[in-house]
Design brief:
The chain has 96 residues and is mostly helical. The protein has one domain. Helices cover 79% and strands 0% of the residues. The chain is built from three helices and no strands.
């Protein structure tokens, strides 16, 4: 597969995943499974951007793992916020 073809396929998949996230966020009832799917979609989109567009799929192992780990931070925070949002809101006074 040529590099241009790989980029085109990654872009099309990013568009499809984005539309999936929009559909789930706007038209479905909230709940754990919807939030989990949105977090997984976010993780997959991040991985595509990191590997294809940032071209870190061919980078050194340490750098690749570091950036991929950071890319998993956002989906993890989505789940943490959903699961423990009210508890985390109690700590708002620390920011004032």
């Amino acid at each position: 597969m040529t590099a241009l073809r790989r980029i085109d396929l990654a872009w099309a998949l990013l568009v499809l995943l984005t539309l999936t996230g929009v559909f789930l966020g706007e038209f479905r009832q909230g709940g754990f499974w919807v939030v989990l799917v949105i977090a997984l979609v976010t993780a997959l989109k991040g991985r595509l951007v990191i590997d294809v567009f940032m071209e870190l799929g061919e980078a050194s192992l340490v750098l690749r793992r570091l950036v991929r780990g950071f890319g998993l931070l956002v989906p993890a925070l989505i789940l943490v916020t959903y699961l423990w949002g009210p508890l985390l809101a109690r700590f708002n006074w620390l920011l004032e």
